[in-house]
Amino acid sequence: MTDFVESWADGPLLALDFESTGTDTATDRIVTATVISIVPGKSPDVRTWLANPGVDIPAEATEIHGVSTDYARQHGRDAAVVVAEVADVLTADWSESTPLCVFNAPFDLSLLHAELRRHHQRDLEMVGSVVDPRCIDKHLDRYRKGKRTLGDLCTHYRVRLDEAHDSAGDALACARLVWRLAKAYPRKIGTRPLADLHRDQIAWHRADQHNFAEFLDRQARRVDERAEADQLRERAADVRTNADGWPVKTAVTASSAALVHAHSR
């Protein structure tokens, strides 16, 4: 039963989402970006960007978010400008009392961090707490079967998702999920001090990744093909390397980034 108690979720929230050229946060690029500022009593302030990423957008990525290479070149703005503007908006609106809602934060924030390094030789500044509904859900309901994409979680928690794989639609759905989780779990989530909840998610993500690495190691011991076993052990090592990479990985391997993102969309 949902317990509607007063919590940080009743105050301002900030939500972020990107669509990209692919799943490798170290090398892929931002295509569309949305930051939504949600203040109680006001209409959401939705800011969106379309970037020309400077590289071809693979057909498989276009199939997901609908933006082709030609369209981005004709209508997108310079990637360096877009990246700087997104980071500036976050710096201005994100604070200790206004959390940043990001679904699968290690992907989106690591992507932004890499883009800032690429175009401006600077790091993503963490100016407040992050709330990641995917991380929270995996901790609260660890043994629930099935995928945990944004669409899956919206269905499970009865949250409206207007347009999947549209950065604005996904960002708004993420904020709705955060609010729903805060209200459904007031003691563990909704009334938890934001700084403490941020640290909780770091620990939950670390534990989840180590559990997944152990699963991969067990699978490696069960297979007969040496090449397959070695591949599984390599994936396990990548996962352990990035276990402390919530909410942002400053150094990430391509295989683990792709693996995490593939299971979250």
What's the structural blueprint in terms of helices and strands?
Blueprint: E1 13-20, E2 30-38, E3 45-52, H1 59-65, H2 69-75, E4 77-78, H3 79-93, E5 100-101, H4 105-120, E6 130-131, H5 133-140, H6 150-156, H7 167-184, H8 186-190, H9 194-222, H10 226-241, H11 254-262
Helix pairs in contact: 3-4, 5-9, 9-10
Protein name: 3'-5' exonuclease
Keywords: Exonuclease, Hydrolase, Nuclease
Pfam families: RNase_T (PF00929)
Mind telling me the CATH class of the domain at 8-192?
Alpha Beta
Structural class: alpha/beta
Instruction: Based on the coordinates given, report the CATH architecture of the domain at 8-192.
Output: 2-Layer Sandwich
Question: SSE order, as H and E?
Answer: EEEHHEHEHEHHHHHHH
* CATH homologous superfamily annotation of the domain at 8-192: Ribonuclease H-like superfamily/Ribonuclease H
C-alpha Rg, in Å? Answer: 18 Å
Shape: globular
Q: List low-pLDDT spans.
A: 252-265
What is CATH's topology name of the domain at 8-192?
Answer: Nucleotidyltransferase, domain 5
Report strand %: 5-15%
Helical amount among residues, as a percent range? 40-55%
Mean pLDDT comes to: 93
* Arrangement of strands in the largest sheet: 4-3-2-1-5-6
Give a short account of the largest sheet.
Answer: 6 strands, mixed
Distance between the termini: 28 Å
Number of strands: 6
Count, helices: 11
Tell me about this structure.
By secondary structure, this protein is an alpha/beta fold. It has a domain at 8-192: Ribonuclease H-like superfamily/Ribonuclease H (Nucleotidyltransferase, domain 5, 2-Layer Sandwich). It is 52% helix and 12% strand. The chain is built from eleven helices and six strands. The model is unreliable at 252-265 (pLDDT under 50). A six-stranded mixed beta sheet has the order 4-3-2-1-5-6, with helices on both faces. α3 (79-93) packs across α4 and α5 (133-140) packs across α9 (194-222). Keywords: Exonuclease, Hydrolase, Nuclease. InterPro entries: Ribonucl_H, RNaseH-like_sf, RNaseH_sf. This is 3'-5' exonuclease. One of its GO terms (molecular function) is exonuclease activity. Residues 12-187 form the Exonuclease domain.
